Fold this sequence. Notes:
Low-confidence stretches: none
Order of helices and strands: HHHHHH
Number of domains: 2
Number of helices: 6
Number of strands: 0
Shape: flat
Structural class: mainly alpha
Distance between the termini: 60 Å
Amino acid sequence: MSDGLNKYTLAFYCNALSSLVLLPCPFIISRKSGSRPPLTFCVLRKIFLLALVGSASQICGYAGIDYSSPVLGTAMMNLIPAFTFILAVISRMEKVNWKSSSSQAKLVGTVASILGALVITVYKGPTVLRSPSLPSLSIPVTLSLFSHDN
């Protein structure tokens, strides 16, 4: 992107390549199992909405990298597992057992990744609070209108 590649072009190429790689997978899997689920309008609608949200988030991510730095964008990618865990807890797909070491590890990892991204954002990101600048004590420079050369 720093050499001039457009974020929309990059998102298109990424999605096209992933489609070409992943498209044969359902046909290979359904050939082994013997039955294929019907492709109804409801399933097509869900696939379209999932693709729309995925493409929009990818474009927003590339726009963020374009406005900041690749280092910051890469650091933000580490938040994907944390947000996935938080969404799974909110939607009750994941149960948090405070006494389980597995749940404790997930919670510590989530908090550590969010705090790490926050530290990188504050350290490398744009200035949020600026201190008032002190008045400069510059000495005025006067220009001579008359030349001393004769």
